[in-house]
Amino acid sequence: MKTKLLSLLSLLVVSHSALAGSAPVATPVDEPSTLVVIGAVAVVIGLVKWKNRK
Prior knowledge:
Layout: H1 2-20, H2 32-51
Helix pairs in contact: 1-2
Organism: Alteromonas profundi
Protein name: PEP-CTERM sorting domain-containing protein
Keywords: Membrane, Signal, Transmembrane, Transmembrane helix
């Protein structure tokens, strides 16, 4: 499950970079779109942890 989550995270980063038209490297966090992507990743991680709770 951890590998699947990491691949999803890397896919989000690469697709965001492709949409922004830049290389897939760390972008400055002051961009609103980057904050949206970080927020979406946080929501996905939270949902996965909530789903897998015992």
